[in-house]
Amino acid sequence: MKRFSLLSEVGKEYGSNDESFAEELLHKISLLNLLQQVATAANETSDPESLLQFAIDRICRIADWELGRGYLLNRNGELEPVSVWYSREKDFPNDLREVLELDGRSKFESIARRAEREGKPLWVEDLREEPQFDRIFSVGKTSVKSAYVIPIRVRKRVVGVLEFLFSASAPEASLIEVLFNVCSQIGRVFERCESEELLREAESHYRKFVEQIHAIFWEGELKPLRVGYLSSEAEGLLGFRSVRWTGDDLSWLSRLHPADRKKVVLCLESLSEGDSIEIMFRILAQDGRVLWFRNIVRAVKEKGIFPKLIGVMIDITEQKSVEEELRSSREQLRALSARLQDAREDERIKISREVHDDLGQLLTALKIDISLLRGNLSNDAKESARISRELKSMDGLVEKAIDSVRRIATELRPLVLEDLGFLEGIRWFGRDFQDRTGIFLSVEKKGNDEKFGKDISVALFRIFQETLTNVARHSGASNVRVSVEGSESDVVLTISDNGVGISETDLVSSKSLGLIGMRERAIFLGGELRIRSEQGGGTTISAKVPLEKRGRRL
Question: What region holds the PAC domain (predicted)?
């Protein structure tokens, strides 16, 4: 009666002959209600089959269709009917049910499978033309004559099919549009369920993996920040049961090393959905030991609720111990290397002094003796000429020996560093290098003109010497540019050439002792050495050393 009254009222509004318009309007309203109901059900359910049943029931009632059913793809990717049915007739013909149940084993391709294979809706106007339904019509107990089949998609993949059988005419465009929307909502539920299943499987595999590597798997909440689950490995590694971590909000925090607590809280609170982070911190075990852990954490949304944290803590105490031993060994080796460098410098100074003072004086005395001999030649002109030539040759050799002694003494102990400073020292050495090799060398000064301490001057000068030695031996360069840039805090020495460059293999080779020694000199002074090189593009070596180390001016 209510429906008739509503139709009458709408009819009066548009005229007595417009009840058909009112009927159509109510039909469209019912379709909109259907969409709303399916959307609501899709948001509330996690069972695709129950949503299929809900949608098929309401579609068949609104469209006045006799029969509706659902199909889903099984794990083998095959379409098979599920126990989702709608029948307008109370006593559903057993023959019809049997035929439809057996369609999966029919030698003919069913219309549902055809729609799934083609991936698009299928309208069958006359079911008598479909071999699948021969038995139905031979029984003669059904009024259905047409069918409409529409696939359910997750993205571009078909996961199921809705099949409707009816005696009415072809469905109108508005109903087809609603069917598309309904299938889209159902597909969304399938996608969500698949994602949740994949997540559960991943978590299961993850937990098994964690248990095998003796790590601690945990889950927690971000707001408030607390641990809700801790795997059983916690008791074996830390010595206390997991419930000791999952009590109040701050119980887990008290187990962290005091120096690491603030860092851990700040890192976790900075996470947003989908973010992941890796933190290393210490935990105080039950027996008082301090254990190191690497904590890999990810923020996720589960069942529409955010934020949730999942993570794994891997015991890296042994690794940290090895790293500490390695770091200590490196520091000891570095200190030993520095002492050896100092010993070498002292030995160089000693050798330089002996070469300069002893050998230099002997050569100078020999040169004087040769000059005296020239003045005491015999009166025999022929014999005097011969001896004079030999003395002149000896004098030239002695002069060369004196030059060599001076050069060796200077290289061993660059007095110019002490007398004129670092900048003039490398300029002097650069001029000598250019004269000896023919490779053009320029020196540029930037920044302040402060004289560096002895340690810095000697270290940078030795790096400079070693670099030029490598340039002369290996680079094939024709030009070298040197830059010295000083500031209030550090000094940077940069040497660039236009040679063939250094290969990656040579850069990391343990045989490149010259490069290793240069790097160690810079590191010992608290600095660094960087090498940039390209095959055929030259090499740039940059040594940066701070003017202060451990609060002491060098």
Answer: 277-328
